[in-house]
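Let us work through a complete example step by step.
Step 1: write down the sequence.
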Amino acid sequence: MHSLDYLREEIRTYFPESKELQLSPAFDGQRRFNFYFEIAPGQRHLLYLNWDGDIDGFTLKCLEFPDAALLRELAGAYTEKGSKMFNIGQPVATLSFVYQGKDNLRVRNYKGKAHIDSHEISARHLMYAVNPFE
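Step 2: predict the structure and record it as C-alpha cells.
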C-alpha cells in the first residue's frame, strides 16, 4: 500500500534515529494494521501508526512510558509477543487523518500541544504535531 509505505518513510525521515520494531516470522501470515517506531535510542517515547484497514485513514500517536529502560524491555519483547504490552504507554499526542496524496493529509481529530490551524496538513506538520520534543 503506497500511503502506508509513504508514512513509514516520512517517520524515518523526520526522526532519523528512529527504528521500526519488527515482529517475528510467526506473525507473517497476519495482516498488519499497527506499526511501532522507537523515536531515538534511550528515549521513553514510542510512535504508534495505526491503519484503519479500509481506506487511507490513519492514526499516529506518540506514547510516553515511565522510563527508557521499561520501553527498551517492552520493545525487546514485541518481536515475539506483539503489541499488547505497549498499552501502558500514555498518549502525549494523537492525530487521526486521511491520506489524500503525498504531503496532503486531512486532519480528522487531534489531541496534543501543537497548534494545528488547518484541516489540510503536510507530513512534516504531522510529525511536528506528535513530536514530544517540540
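Step 3: interpret the result. The two ends are 30 Å apart (CA to CA).
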